[in-house]
Every structure is written in C-alpha cells, then in structure tokens.
Amino acid sequence: MKLIIFGPPGSGKGTYSSKLKEMFGVEKIATGDIFREEIKKGSELGRKVEKYVKEGKLVPDEIVIEVVKERIKGLEKFILDGFPRTVNQAKELLKLTKIDAIIKLNIHEEILVEKMLGRRICSNPKCDGNYNIANIHKVVEGIEYYLPALLPKNDMICDKCGSPLIQRDDDKEEIIRQRIKIYEEQTKPVLEFFKKETKIPIVEIWVNRPVEEIVNRLIEELKKLKI
C-alpha cells in the first residue's frame, strides 16, 4: 500500500496519515515534520530549510525530492504527507515508485484558518501527538461542519508521551493564509497532473466531521479499491 494524502494546510493530513499508520502499519513520511525536526536539531538540512518553513514558503524541489528518495527506499507500505507539492516533485516521485491511491481532503478556507489557529502539537519531536482547541459547528456553502475540539486528557499535556503541547511557529493567521494561497497556486495543479497523466485513483473526502467518522469513510473508500 503506497498512498499520498493530499489537501490544503490544516486539512488534517497529519492526523489522518497517523491513523492510517496505526491501522495498516504503513510508514508515515511527513516532509514538514522531517524539516521541523531537522531545524530543532540544527542539522545542515535544518539550516537549509529553516527560512522557508518559518516564512510558510515551499522548500526547493531538489531538497525535498532527495529527502523523500532516502525515506521511501526499500519500503513496501507508506503514506506521503505533504509531498508532492509541485508537478515537478510528482514527476520525480513516479520515477522512484508506484503509487496505489491518492487521498484528497476537501475543506473551506475559513474553516481551515479557524482550525489551524486552534492546532496544538506535542513538543517532543519523536512524538506525533496532534490536538486542537477550536470547537467548530457551522454551515459553509451547503457543507455542514461539526468539528469538536480534540483536547488532551490533561490541560496542554500530550496523552501519548506526557510532553507539553505547543503551537507551531507557522500557525499564525498571516502565514496560514499565505500557505493556503501557495497551495492554490502551486500545489493544486499536482492533482490535475495526476488526473490527466496517470490512472492513479483519487479518493475525495470532505473533512466536515469528527476524526473517527472521517477515518471510517477513508477505510471504506480504500477497501473499494482493493489495495
């Protein structure tokens, strides 16, 4: 099972890829998490990408492709979160491996901004704990959103490892809207490339309900593909 999870920043790629990792034993490869970890470590890679990440800009293709190439080497089951983000990255990926399916998450911009401002992550770089303090219940263009807050059992403490929760440096409204704009302008065409140039099935899901309900929808759709 080789998957790509695709969607605008804040749509839940990290949450759903983590759930699929737990359920199917696939390796989760999240380029954003990799870069943030390298920045914290102060590595050579971290120094190269730090200015791009903090400004909400895309890291240059040649850096991202090399990182992904090393991570997927020899893997039979993985889910790519945050890659590919450009058509060039998509073309290079298809030279490296076969992709079984693409998951596309749909969500309106105003909901994205509210969700991302409420997002909290575990401060431990080795933990993938994700939470959200925003409580959303509204209708946008005919889509009803019911997204309860995802709170830890203890205030601002990760359930998984006990580390403090933090807000990511790039979860600020100005940067959030810039990242959404970049997605619309540069990343969205990747889907058009896959639709026109490949036969990879695309599973589209509206992220308008609690996590477990969306996970069940994803599983049902993947079962239909028999991958």
Outline of the structure:
This protein is an alpha/beta fold and 227 residues long.
Can you give a write-up of this model?
The protein is of the alpha/beta class and 227 residues long. Helix content is 46%, strand content 19%. It has helices at 13-24, 31-41, 44-54, 61-72, 87-96, 109-117, 173-197, 211-225, and strands at residues 2-6, 27-30, 78-81, 101-106, 119-122, 130-132, 136-140, 143-147, 165-166, 202-206. The strands form 3 sheets. It has a 5-stranded parallel sheet with strand order 2-3-1-4-10, with helices on both faces. Strands 6-5-9 form a 3-stranded antiparallel sheet. A two-stranded antiparallel ribbon has the order 7-8. Helix 2 (31-41) packs across helix 3 (44-54), helix 4 (61-72) packs parallel to helix 5 (87-96) and helix 6 packs across helix 7. The termini are close together. The mean pLDDT is 91.
Number of domains: 1
Major β-sheet, in short? 5 strands, parallel
Label the overall shape.
Answer: globular
Radius of gyration: 17 Å
Strand content: 15-25%
User: How many H/I helices?
Assistant: 8
Task: Briefly note the structural class of the backbone.
Answer: alpha/beta
Report the strand count: 10
Strand order in space, largest sheet: 2-3-1-4-10
Which homologous superfamily in CATH is the superfamily?
Answer: P-loop containing nucleotide triphosphate hydrolases
CATH topology: the name is Rossmann fold
What is the H-and-E element order? EHEHHHEHEHEEEEEHEH
Give me the CATH architecture, please: 3-Layer(aba) Sandwich
* CATH C-level: Alpha Beta
Distance between the ends: 6 Å
User: Helical proportion?
Assistant: 40-55%
Q: Uncertain regions: pLDDT < 50 for 5+ in a row?
A: none
Summed over residues and divided by their number, the pLDDT gives a mean of 91
